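task queued by scheduler; priority normal; single chain, no ligands, no partner chains; default sampling; output format set to structure tokens
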Amino acid sequence: MKTHYDFVFLTNTPSFYKLNLCRELAKHHSLLLVLLGYGSEAVNQVPEREPFDVVFLHEGDLHRRNPFRVFFRLLKLMRRIRAGRVLFSGWFVPEFNAYAFLSPRRKNALICESSVLDCSLSGMKGLIKRSIISRMSAVLPSGIPHRELFERAGFRGSIHPTGGVGLIRYTPRTRRKTAHRPLRYLFIGRLIAVKNVVALAREFQHNGKPLTIVGSGPLEPDIRRLHAPNITLTGFVPNEQLPEIFRRHDIFILPSLYEPWGLVVEEALYHGLPALASQHVGCARDLITPGDTGEIFNPEEPDSLTRAMQRIEHQYEHYQDKVHAIPWEQRKKQQIQAYVELGHR
């Protein structure tokens, strides 16, 4: 382990998109990734060899950690090193929040997936968030509604929009494919209430269109009880198998009632699928251009999804052309550049 790092990245679990981002940053900057541990939602392991250093503050399930022990381990670690910038991944980890008040404000930067869509700055929780924000000299909001959160909070530091929450797997893309008839719809995510997946399944039970639901969760029995022959449930599918799943479908749909970003929308677009996203999906305004790369709908309005589906189906080839024209390399550079600029200050 080094004694000085350009970036010390404090986050909870080793999600693949965070690891991909760290690999890119480590090409030109020294970086230490500090992790709480592994969570039930994190199916990724940190490879033995990475181009950056990695420290776990807790070995095993992060939900079983002792917060006081973790905090003192963090303090001990940070006393041994010097950091150009300390990157705080959100404000949901008490140990990291506490450290923000001990670390010099000029070094602190907040990576934020929360937005005006899902985050309130009022009441006691809002006061805590404002206090944490006040300890930051810079913020890295994921997208448009995320930046609006800091503007609403009156943040006076530097703002570096990233355009993403990390880097997806840029695996080889398939060529523009011939659409299936009828068009095949795809949902990928956990089968939980905030994903609004039961309402989605009921919509497709009614319209009879082909829908594949990839994922597992407590709501799976509710979907199976619909007995809709046009709906296929695959269960959990490993990330490395998703490109093939995308290839076999035509339109991606994410009807969430709450979604800070929605990385799976980004993956679907990368693999050539126009996307339908709820207006509550954090990445919708950044990634979806209505009438071109997809549509944004209101999940509380019964006919909103139906109208959005009709628009895409009516001009599917147009949407497909626009999706294949997305400048992915430019988007990748934008995200990395946001961190590079931060390091130069």
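post-processing summary
- The mean pLDDT is 94.
- DSSP finds 13 helices and 13 strands in the chain.
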